[in-house]
Amino acid sequence: MSGKWRIGKLFRFEATRELSGRRDGHSFTAEIVLASEALTGPGFVADFGELAPVKKHIDAVLDHRMLNDVVPDPSDEGIAEHLRGWARDHLPAAVSSVLQDVRIRTGRTMSPPAGTAVDFGATHWLEGLPPGHQCGHHHGHTYRVFLPASGPEWPAPVNLPPSFADYLTSGLDGQVLNDVFAFNPTCEHLAEHFAKWLAERDIAGIDEEVLTVRVSETESTWGEHEGRPA
Ligand SMILES: Nc1nc2c(c(=O)[nH]1)N=C([C@H](O)[C@H](O)COP(=O)(O)OP(=O)(O)OP(=O)(O)O)CN2
Fold it and tell me: Counting atoms of ligand 1 from 1, which one is nearest the CA of 139?
């Protein structure tokens, strides 16, 4: 399959700032996006665990702080710029080299509109992670699958084709994904598989040239595949 993979991890922090003479407090979300046109052998852009230092930095420097005291520009773009620079300087080279973006938003997480996402519960374990990594053990997720219309931007999901929604719920809910699939079930590989599933079927409204499929394992992580299946 050709195309591109992206993964994202979200970090929340609570803070206040003064912009244009007005003090405002928010729940902030920082989203770190990594992108690559190839996966590592076991199927990762990079392990989400490689982003743990970002959480430590956010907790130490931004969480429950007056942002004007800690970053030169406390606007959303200024905070993103601070985190981009920090990530470039402190993450391992294999991770910083695939850093695509850092985005900041304020407010609570929104639920996707009805009909645009399917959740299913399933078990998996992952090969290719460091010894002792929690995700090497059998564990489960409430997976969420959707088709973000705008690619790497904050996703505006489109309605899921009913046959695809049915495949996800009747085919995968309650399953052990390692038994169902011949591949290591990372969210990158799952997104690629779902893109292929959609492209192989003649489904109205699905343009596989630009199709993006996003698979979210947890509230704070997602992986997606964008582009035409080979
Ligand atoms: N690139 C990928 N990395 C990881 C994947 C994956 O599919 N692609 N999957 C996992 C595990 O399945 C894990 O359960 C999810 O990642 P994790 O960072 O542990 O997610 P949490 O939201 O539970 O993170 P916390 O920071 O512990 O809250 C691992 N890596």
Answer: 14
Ligand 1 site-directed mutation target among 33, 48, 215, 218, most atoms within 8 Å of CB: 48
Residues 160 and 167: beta-carbon distance below 8 Å = no
Element (H, E) at 86: helix 76-90
Tell me the average pLDDT across 69-75: 97
Q: In this model, does residue 17 exceed pLDDT 80?
A: yes
Looking at the CA of residue 190, tell me the nearest atom of ligand 1.
7
213 forms beta bridges with 225
Domain limits at 47? 2-106
Which ligand 1 atom is the nearest neighbour of the CA of 189? 7
- Look at the chain and count its residues: 230
The last residue of a domain, from among 56, 79, 106: 106
Question: What CATH number does the domain containing 196 carry?
Answer: 3.30.479.10
For the chain, give percent helix, strand, coil, nearest 5: 30, 30, 40
Residue 150 pLDDT: 59
Cβ atoms of residues 153 and 100 within 8 Å: no
Residue nearest to atom 2 of ligand 1 (CA): 47
What is the model's pLDDT at position 15?
98
Give residues (CB < 6 A) around ligand 1: 7, 44-49, 126, 135, 186-188, 217-218, 220-221, 223
- 121 and 100, same structural domain? no
The alpha carbon dihedral of 120, 122, 128, 133 has a sign of positive
Round to whole Å and give the CA distance between 64 and 27.
10
